[in-house]
């Protein structure tokens, strides 16, 4: 009986701790998206680890943090940033509780996009280690999208295959 009570207590404490960490991660991601919308360059990039990777919607957009900052800076300086809000988000943890990964559907100026990524716990804060932004395409419209992007991406495919 004592073992059962201890097990239930442990499970309850663990579940509550994980719920609190999910809330922190949700806040981190929501604040990160809001920092872009509010044109807050420092807040936006401080939410990321120093060795973070950002992968954008274009096949050529695979940036380490300093390169992403260089690309993004003109948008922040001109006040023409992006505004993403989460429609739904799923968060998962590794066994240590110090690494989390997520996927989210976003309302954006590009309509619905999918974000996914990895966060790591640095001290008591969660930081974005990797973020992948993808446009969604309704399955019935894939052929039309392929026709639009084929001329551009065929050239990129040929270039990448030569490496």
TrEMBL record:
Q: Which residues does UniProt assign to the signal peptide? A: 1-19
Recorded coiled-coil stretches: none
The record's annotation in InterPro entries points to: NTF2-like_dom_sf (IPR032710), SnoaL-like (IPR037401)
- Top-level taxon of origin: Bacteria
What keywords does the record list, in alphabetical order?
A: Signal
Give start and end of each SnoaL-like domain.
Answer: 25-138
Specify one Pfam family: SnoaL_3
Q: What is this protein called?
A: SnoaL-like domain-containing protein
**Organism, as annotated:** Flavobacterium saccharophilum
């Amino acid at each position: 009986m004592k073992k059962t009570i201890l097990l239930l207590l442990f499970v309850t404490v663990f579940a509550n701790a994980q719920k609190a960490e999910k809330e922190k991660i949700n806040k981190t991601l929501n604040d990160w998206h809001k920092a872009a919308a509010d044109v807050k360059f420092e807040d936006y990039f401080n939410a990321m680890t120093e060795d973070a990777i950002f992968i954008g919607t274009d096949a050529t957009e695979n940036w380490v943090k300093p390169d992403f900052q260089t690309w993004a800076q003109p948008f922040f300086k001109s006040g023409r940033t992006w505004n993403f809000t989460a429609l739904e988000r799923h968060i998962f943890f590794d066994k240590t509780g110090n690494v989390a990964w997520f996927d989210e559907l976003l309302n954006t100026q590009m309509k619905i996009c999918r974000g996914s990524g990895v966060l790591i716990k640095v001290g008591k804060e969660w930081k974005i280690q990797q973020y992948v932004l993808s446009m969604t395409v309704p399955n019935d419209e894939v052929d039309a999208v392929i026709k639009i992007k084929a001329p551009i991406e065929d050239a990129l495919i040929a270039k990448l295959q030569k490496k």
